Amino acid sequence: MECIVCGDENQNDDSKFCSSCGSRLTNQK
Hints:
The protein is mainly α. Helices cover about 50% and strands about 0% of the residues. It has one domain. It contains one helix and no strands.
């Protein structure tokens, strides 16, 4: 699964931030 960068580009390294953001992006989509 690829992580979409949300907010800060480097935040992509944070799995928790990535999952949380990914969920939001999925819901909005």
